Amino acid sequence: MGLFSKIKEMFKGQDKQEEVVNEVKEEIDLENEEADLEESKKIEKDERRNDESLDLKEEPKKEKIDKKKEVEKDVKRYEKGLTKSREGFVSKLVSLTNRYSKVNEEFFDELEEILIMADIGVNTVMNFIDRLKDRVRKEGLTDPSVLKEIIVDELFIIYVNDEVLSSKINYNENGPTVILFVGVNGVGKTTTIGKLAYKLKNEGKKILLVGADTFRAGAYLQLKEWSEKIDVGFYGKEEGSDPASVVYDGLVKAKDEDYDVVLVDTAGRLQNKVNLMRELEKINKVIDGFIEGGANETLLILDATTGQNGISQAKAFKEITNITGIVLTKLDGTAKGGIVLAIKEEVGLPVKYIGLGEAKEDLTVFDIEKYIYGLFKDMM
Ligand SMILES: Nc1nc2c(ncn2[C@@H]2O[C@H](COP(=O)(O)OP(=O)(O)OP(=O)(O)O)[C@@H](O)[C@H]2O)c(=O)[nH]1
Ligand SMILES: [Mg+2]
After folding, report:
1. pTM, whole model, 2 decimals?
2. Is 16 contained in some domain?
3. Are residues 73 and 88 located together in one domain of the fold?
4. Are residues 217 and 307 both part of a single domain?
C-alpha cells in the first residue's frame, strides 16, 4: 500500500468518528462497571492498592476519548480549510491523469506546470519531476491513473525526507516560555497570537500577550482586544514606545504574576533590515536577562496567499534573526497549498502551525499527514 493510501485509511470515515467515540465510551462504561465490581471485591482485601489501580485505570481511557475527539476536529479543520486548494490543485491533477492514456513527455510537462502553479517552487518541482520520471522508468509504469498515488507519495516524501520535523514548541522548563512573532505587514501576526493564546489557554497554560509592536498606531489595542476576547493577560504601550522596554516590563509582569507563556507581538517590518535586526537583537538581549539565550521560539508568520514572495520573506528573515519555525496563515484563502513543500525544501524551516481562518479556533498544529489528506482526499 502506498503512503497516501495509508494516510487515507487512517483518517477516512472521520464522519463516523462520533459513532466510534460513542462505541468507545460504551465499551469503557462496560469495562468500568466490570472494574467497579472487581474493585469492590478488592476493597475487602486491600483498600489502598485498589485506589491506586483505579487511578491508573481511569486516566488513559478519558484521554483516549479526548484525543479521538481532538483528531476528529482537527481533520475536519484541515478538510474544510483546504477546500480551495483541493478544488484548484487536485481537480487539475485529476483532469490531467484522465486526459492522457499514457505517461509521456507532455504529461510530465503539464504536471510540472500544475505543480509550479500550486506554489511548490521551481527547484522543488524540477527535483520532484526527475525523481518521478526515475520511478516511472524503474517500475515500468505507463498508466497515468496509477501515477496519481505515486505523485502524492512523492510529495509526502519531499516533506518528511528522512528528517524528524518537530512542530513542537520549545517550552522553557523554569519560568515563562517566551515566543516572539515576526513577519511583514498584514501577514496575520496579531491574529495568530490571539489564536495561539486561545489554544494554549485551553491546554491549561496561563498566557500573557505583550504588545511590542509600537510602530503602527493602535497596534497594541488590536492585541488588547484579543486578550479580552479570549480572557488572557495583556501588557502593552502606545505607539512610539521603545519595544525592548515594553518587553522588559512585560516580562517583569510575567515573572511576578506567574505566567507560563508570553507571546510577543513585534513590528516585524522588513523595509529596513538593519533597523529590524537591531531591534530584534535588543529585544532578545532583554529576554536574555530573564531566560538564558533569549526567546524560546521566534516564529515567522507567512501569508500563504503571497506564494513565492513568502519564500523570499522567509529567506530574508532567516538572515536577520534565528527563526525557529513558521506559521503559515490564510491557507483557507488560497488554492496554492504547495507552499508548505516549498518552505521545507527551499527554506529548511519547520511549519509549526497553520492558520485556516480568522476565528480563534482556526489555528492548528501543522501535521503533514492530515495536510496531505485534506489536500488529496477526493483524488483517489
Ligand atoms: N482567512 C484568513 N484570514 C486571516 C488568517 N490569519 C489572519 N487573517 C486576517 O488577515 C488580516 C491581517 O491580520 P493581522 O493579524 O492584523 O496581521 P498583522 O501581521 O498583525 O498585521 P500588522 O500588525 O499590520 O503588521 C486580518 O484581517 C486577519 O483577520 C487566516 O488564517 N485565514
Ligand atoms: Mg499586528
Report:
1. 0.78
2. yes
3. no
4. yes
